[in-house]
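Below is the data:
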Amino acid sequence: MTDTSAAAEVVGREEELAAIERFAASPPAGARALLLTGAAGIGKTTLWRCAVERCRRGGDRFLVATPAESERKLPFAALNDLLADLVDDFGGALPERRRQALDAALLRSVGKSTVDRLAVALAVFDLLRAAACDQPLLIAIDDTQWLDAPSAAACDFALRRLQGEPVTLVCSDRESAGIRFDLSRERVTWIEIGPLSAAVLGRIVTARTGAQLSRPAVARLGAVSGGNPFFALEIARALARTATASDDVPLPTTVTAAARARLLSLSPECRDALIVIAALGQPTNAAVDAMVPMYADRIGEALEAGILVVDRDRVRFSHPLLASTVYTDAPPERRRATHRALARVVEDPEQRALHLARGTAQADERVAAAIERAAARAAARGAPQTAAELAEHARRLTSSDAADAAARRALAAAGFTWSAGDARRSETMLVDLITQLPSSPARAQARCLLVKIVDDIPTTIAELELALEDASGDAAVTASVRNLLARQRTWTGDTQGAIREAEAAAAVAEGAGVIGELAVALGREAAARAYAGEPTPLEPLERALALEQKLQDPLPVDESPTFFRGVCALWEDDLETARQCLEAADERAARLGESWRLVVLTHLIELELRAGDSARALHYAVEAEDIGAYWGVGHAYAAALASAALAKAVVGSADAARAAASQALDAMRPCGYEIVIRTAERALGHLELALGNAAAAHAALEPLIAGAPIASPPAAAAAGDEIEALLELGRIDEARTLLAKLADQARTSGRARATAVAARCAGLLAARDGDLAAAADHLGRALAAHDRFTDQLELGRTQLALGLVERRRKHKAQAREALTRASELFALVGAQIWKDRAHSELERTGISRRRDGELTPTEQRIAILAARGATNREIATQMFITVKTVEANLSRIYGKIGVRSRTELASRIEHQRDASQTVSIPQ
């Protein structure tokens, strides 16, 4: 079901929406208020609308006012908006004097020029109380800071006197003003709306404007806007026109007008000193003392005005917009002079290099070399955006006669820009560089980096063939090109071609002693073989991992043997090894600021789905989509969308899953990225099967099964879904043929997952043929195979199939147990569609529900293990669930059977054994 509420349009405000939901869910026992506070443009009105929507019930009376700043001096303007309908409905019952005063205030009558404000306030109280006497009353006021004083006073008077009446006030107010009505604290729920993260701001900008900002642009957007979505939307238009890596962002006048007005209230000497603070960022007091004479006189004025604040030993602007305005308004030469002076006093070597770069206008080889070294240090410590800016400065300051240095620095700048998340700009830089350079290893390296950005597979392979010619016998570069050819062929599903290229890369690298490229080649070969359905070749992988440990400079995450080991382990259902390797790769990528972290996240999504933690899978999906959206690498974004679609399909977000999968397919089908296409098809097929749309599931899965070997990970993962879809469509012979291939692959590989899925499908086929005993037998073997791997969703599906078979065999108790277990497993995973199916089967079969207080099968197993002394972690390991799930189940168990500790639980179970009572906790 599609959510069309206002809350569906809100991005990044999950905590605030949850607080609003809690407030709205509790019916008013008396007068109460919800207050939303925050700075201008922070999103108060959007959340206010959500709150009003959630608090408004069908039978409620609803009063609303949205005052504007221009109306602040118009007496009773807001009161007229609020009470117009109430005066018509209840005004006739007011005492004469109060009615006359209210009519005069609201300009409903021609009378005295002065208004009895006490009589008006009493009339407002009478009206609100009358309106709430027979049904709840909702009063909604947006931007209460703009209420005219007479309206605010009358409302305050009335609201303070309402006690037991079911009246709800929902209002928003500026951060500095506080609530306008003197209500007791226990009657007010206060939600302070803070700044949004840069990633969320980027999503808002994309949703509202369609602009896809790069990662550096998103970071600058967050820094300059201070997390304010209104400011961010205004600034985004300026950022979209700016292609540099610099922090010098042109700000639109709509944003800077207020900031500039505040700054103009300061003396020229103070404003001059503020340029230093703006150029430094968040300087220490010592740095300011070194740069700004007469610190107290010049800076003190800005501190008193609230433009600067002191936080421990640092002084900073109270809002980033003030700093940006000061810096942007300063003449370029004044800025350069400030940076040159700062380069002499700051201690951090990277900051010193950055100030030196920003302060130098003409080519200077000595300065360029120093900045180049600083860029490398910044990249090594995980600051690719700083590295990108420094590298561009180094290239800009390179002497015209230093061609080799210029090429090296230009390549470094493009690489750091790419790592920082601005692939589109990096692509432009690389195309220019390739055009300018002669055939050389440097041009080959530029082609290699370009291949990681360009989306068309034939184009990239042609580019790499040219790169082999450019490498000119350079072994390291040749091995790198071969490794990238292996990568591209893997993306297309050409695993045999990928294996050949990786073997060639390994031979070149080993012959030349290039251990980094050798490690990459061994890892890529292992991954290609595993993707082809072969057993994971552990020996070359272990060698690759050992070589990686010897490297001084870390390999990019998408070339790391640690990453390849994690991927192979995931395909083997070795989740412990997969988690260890993939989380290590993700942590390192995050630390280095690599955008290729996205590739790790797509595999972590699969890992968490297999581990049964769909919430964490969705968290990774959001991160992957965020990176993909701003990076500008189309196939990487499509990979994120395809993996996210799978997570959304599992939890039942049908519209979102279809949208993500369709977007990935539309983008990648013309480009040849078969792995991404197969992942998206698998997601669509799983979703449609879960929804009961067998024809749509088959339409999505048929090209996947036809286009990939049954042993390959996507085909092996989707084969069971396709068999079920074929059975539901009555295409029995096709289902039988595919099942034979899957069963043969399961026997050949010995993989537990394939064995379990093949046995389940065999059970479904036997049930379709009417042989229910054979079906139950196959499903029993499937359950035995499930003991060898962790996947609660797959186990739940097997239990669901068993329940349906047992029901047809008239084994009601066994059917109930299997269907209940399936429902519990789907609930644990968060697979809502599958859970609904299991519940529906329970309802439809007429099998009686479990009695209140009776333990479910999961609770029974946990109770027995806990009574026998197993720890929560040991129980979780044995049952393939999380420790938190164990804790939650134990709490329910204690409540159901009336115990408070494990000791009492053990005693109760022992007592039941002695009395031969096994209905609650059977052995």
About this structure: The longest strand covers residues 167-174.
